[in-house]
Amino acid sequence: ESVGIAKALAAKNGYELDSNQELFGLGVANIFGSFFSAYPATGSFSRSAVNHESGAKTGLHVFISYLILINRISLQLTSLQCQFLLCALAAIVVSAVIGLVDYEEAMFLWRVDKKDFFLWTVTSATTLFFGIEIGVLVGVGFSLAFVIHESANPHIAVLGRLPGTTVYRNTQQYPEAYTYNGIVIVRIDAPIYFANTSFIKDRLREYEITVDQCTSKRGPEVERISFVILEMAPITYVDSSAVQALKELYQEYKSRNIQIAIANPNRDVLLTLSNSGFIDLVGKEWCFVRVHDAVQVCLQYVQSSTPSPKTPQVSLHNSTSFSERLNERLNRKDDLTASEMESGERERLLSTDADPMVQPLLSRKSHK
């Protein structure tokens, strides 16, 4: 309660508040007061509001209030006069507290974020009817609930390539961005941990279907999704549950001949995935510095698996499986260390008959 009213007054008067110092001062006051049978001291919401509206700037107002109180008591007021003083005090407190209600902030929250406005309304109503202590607890509880909900349901975007660039952005934010047939590019904008793994896996399965039905697509015509590229730049942390979920997702994709590719993980995430064996499971050759690099390699495999119009259609059921053909080509590549993957030094994976429109990856012999 003390810190809450102090922050409100600090915001109104334009000065900074050190909450730790505030609580330290209250603790010292209560420790010394305990040697003299004093009541526990804290900041009062109503008295602070009255003092603020009265223009009090220092602690001297306490002594002045005591002098006035002693003077009134010495006059031996009648019961009628005491009741009148209580009504006057109530009117003063109500008038002072109303001045602390920030209606402009409420309208701002309504325009910006409805959840914050809901939180403001619930906290204010609870404080009004049940007291500031319960109001603060309810406000903190709802805030934690919102944080947990947002963390357990993170934002996930399907990326597409902006025309004329190598930049990949959210297709909903940039409708002109296009995707490629047989390839899904997904960006997860949150850390992955035990609370959101199920949600992420469900959304990835959903995107596999919705992106396949998208009309703004480029590249050779294919019948199904063959690659899922995970843009991991926004992911700052993964835990053991997340690693296990990624392994299960990899096995599920593998059973349907879908290859996972990883693009731009930060150092901590890359080390975690490497130490857990997920990088070895996916293959180091499927870890890329840029999303564009991953797309070019996946496009090369999509093109190589698509028959030309002059050749007869070959079914995957009566020929070597798609994953086996991928492994056969990847077995000829050298393994890369985690530091090499971060530095961007990748071996050229494109074949000699690659489409000239497909941009090559960074060569191992390129200048640093």
Describe the model:
This protein has 368 residues and is of the alpha/beta class. It has 15 helices and eight strands. The strands form two sheets. It has a six-stranded mixed β-sheet, sandwiched between helices. Helix 3 (45-54) crosses helix 5 and helix 7 runs antiparallel to helix 8 (132-152). The longest helix is centred in the middle third of the chain and has 21 residues, at 132-152. It starts with a helix and ends in a 25-residue tail after the last helix. Residues 307-323 and 332-368 have low confidence and may be disordered. Pfam families: STAS, Sulfate_transp. The chain crosses the membrane at residues 23-46, 58-77, 83-101, 117-148. It is a multi-pass membrane protein. It is found in: Membrane. Its main location: membrane.
Number of helices: 15
Strand content: 5-15%
N- to C-terminal separation? 58 Å
Low-confidence sequence ranges:
307-323, 332-368
Helix content: 40-55%
Instruction: Tell me the number of strands.
Output: 8
The Rg value, from CA coordinates, equals 32 Å
Q: For the largest sheet, list the strands in their spatial order.
A: 2-1-4-6-7-8
Whole-number mean pLDDT:
77
Structural classification? alpha/beta
Order of helices and strands: HHHHHHHHEEEEHEEHEHHEHHH
Main β-sheet, in a few words? 6 strands, mixed
Shape: elongated
Protein name: STAS domain-containing protein
InterPro entries: SLC26A/SulP_dom, SLC26A/SulP_fam, STAS_dom, STAS_dom_sf
Transmembrane segments: 23-46, 58-77, 83-101, 117-148
Subcellular location: Membrane
